[in-house]
Amino acid sequence: MSRERSRTTVRRLPEKQVTDVGVLHGILDAALVAHVAVPAPGRLAVVPVGIARDGDRLLIHGSAASQAFRFLATGVETCTTVTLLDAVVVARSQFESSMDYRCAMIFGGYTALEGEEKEGALAVLSQALMPGMTQARPPSDKEVRAVSVLALPLTEWSLKVSDHDAPEDAPEDLDREVWGGVVPLHHVWGEPVTAPGLPGSPAVPQALSTWPEGRS
């Protein structure tokens, strides 16, 4: 892993920095969305994108007509952020209250994928974002051309994890009769809702009905 102090070293609460690439992979595998900075001249923006990890690279996709994706495809340096919020930490003072989270920042430039590599990446994205839909029609040549697929190598990244067992109350607040603690947050996945008019009443794919498993 390449580490450049100016971009990957955590300065605020450095004890929360994690350098285990396995933790990074776990965060990316659990997430569905990342936010990517698009530093286009005069049009600075941060865009949300669906993601999938493919080994040691991150895949994103969007419309081939998107100005943001066309700009990112030039390989411009950018930052991609993925955050999983795990809990709200309620201290006995407003100042010491905080959150538990896992946050990854990945630096570098994206590369546009084409041909068989693009089609393979689309299959990876489909499996990550729509697991079990192996019987769904694959994209046509026209649909493949309408989609931009970009890849970012996981070579330069910064990872910060906050995980409290209890609030870190200031000494002067320890005797206050005020509730403090940790409120866990969890993704709640609803029951799949079948679209009307499906011929033959096909069953919900098992992978979709158990989708939350492994995404935490």
Structural features, described:
The chain is of the alpha+beta class and 216 residues long. The chain has a single domain, classed as Electron Transport, Fmn-binding Protein, Chain A (Pnp Oxidase, Chain A, Roll). Helix content is 20%, strand content 31%. It contains six helices and nine strands; from the N terminus they run H-H-E-E-E-H-E-E-E-H-H-E-E-E-H. Strands 1, 2, 3, 4, 5, 6, 7, 8 and 9 form a nine-stranded antiparallel β-sheet that branches. Strand 1 (33-38) and strand 2 form a beta hairpin. The longest helix has 15 residues, at 115-129. The model has no long low-confidence stretch (mean pLDDT 90).
Helix proportion range: 10-25%
Shape: globular
CATH superfamily: Electron Transport, Fmn-binding Protein, Chain A
Series of H and E elements: HHEEEHEEEHHEEEH
From the N-terminal CA to the C-terminal CA, the straight-line distance is: 24 Å
Number of discrete domains: 1
In the CATH hierarchy, the third-tier topology is known as: Pnp Oxidase, Chain A
Q: Which whole number gives the mean pLDDT?
A: 90
Q: Strand share of the residues?
A: 25-35%
CATH architecture designation: Roll
Q: Supply the helix-strand structural class.
A: alpha+beta
Can you summarize the main beta sheet?
9 strands, antiparallel
Number of strands: 9
CATH class descriptor name? Mainly Beta
Low-confidence stretches: none
Radius of gyration: 21 Å
* Discrete helix count: 6
Q: How are the secondary structure elements laid out?
A:
Blueprint lengths: L4 H4 L12 H10 L2 E6 L6 E10 L2 E7 L3 H6 L4 E14 L7 E12 L1 E2 L2 H15 L11 H5 L1 E7 L3 E6 L18 E4 L21 H4 L7
Antiparallel strand pairs: 1-2, 1-4, 2-3, 3-7, 4-5, 4-9, 5-8, 6-7
